[in-house]
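quick one before i forget lol
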Amino acid sequence: MIKTLLLCLSLLCSAALAAPIAVKVQGDFVNLHSGAGRGYPMVQVAIKGESLTLVTRRNDWVQVLFRQQTFWLARADLTQLVTLTGEQFDVSDQRLNEFEQRAFEAGLLFGDFNGSSYYQLSFSYLFSPYFHTELAIGQANGRQADNLSAELSAYLSPMPHWRLSPYFGIGGGVLQTTPRTILVQTPDRNNSLASVELGLRYYMTRNFIARMGYRRSVIITDRNDNEEIDTWKLGFSVFF
């Protein structure tokens, strides 16, 4: 089931590469590196008037074809280039702007549910950069019992424009517990949940967001005392 969820998220976040763009150097020169990073040496220089082809982008680096060889150009150096029609490049972080203006998220997280292995599939809708709702389906597998939960939560993000953004929220739902007993047939238990959560989101690149959170839940039972559970989770989301 986990492989199926991963495949679904991969399909959601996959995006076709743009077609290669032919450009020429407008400034005095641009440095070309052997790899996508400052740690790679500068191995070639394209001077004013020479032509290149932009192939693809990796974070803050652009792969280029120059003199029938492949090199890497720093994204900031795009200001030194123009297209063959004379258009200049806007090097603002378009993906970060899309992150701030996103409307939907789908996430897959793994963690610990009171000592049991846990994974969660979630879908979110953002009403604004500060407020969003999330529907989460979680499965916890332990030695004594399996737990299946469904919760609807409301979250606030006080600093949504930060690349590393904290959030907190409250929610509620249902928890179905299936005991793993052999000698005695124990019926499944269905209880209500009330939860609070604290966490962090980190915008990585493209459509990916890393996420980690701590969730404190109260299982409302028909007994005199309610149960409390802790959930730690770590994973990623994709936005679209």
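fyi Residues 2-13 form the longest helix (12 residues).
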